[in-house]
Design a protein that fits this description.
Blueprint (H helix, E strand, L loop, with lengths): L6 H4 L4 H11 L4 H8 L5 H18 L2 H20 L6 H12 L1
């Protein structure tokens, strides 16, 4: 199924919009929670949050990042179904079965 991402549109999202979109997909961090709550933040905290926001904006408008997250979710679900844990569980199992035969 082909799809596209409008990176130009994403570049115009406000910082709160980027943070809210990120929070719909991933866990919030303390700085982004404080920002959305309207809590006072120091200069260093604001600078660090801005770094996060730019990184999140980039990731939210990246097909490769989307595919990475999608593949990770599928792999985690498959490993849970197979009751295996670890990055290469299915591959390791297959390899051991092939060596045993």
């Amino acid at each position: 199924m082909p799809f596209s991402i409008d990176a130009e549109h994403a570049s115009h999202w406000s910082d709160p919009e980027v943070i809210e979109r990120w929070h719909t997909l991933f866990c919030a961090n303390i700085l982004s929670q404080r920002f959305l709550s309207g809590d006072a933040m120091g200069v260093a905290e604001q600078n660090r949050l801005q770094i996060y926001v730019e990184e999140w904006r980039s990731r939210l408008s990246s097909i490769s990042w989307f595919m990475r997250v999608l593949n990770e979710a599928i792999a985690r679900e498959a490993n849970q179904e197979d009751r295996f844990f670890g990055r290469l569980s299915r591959r390791s199992l297959l390899k051991s079965r092939l060596q045993a035969s």
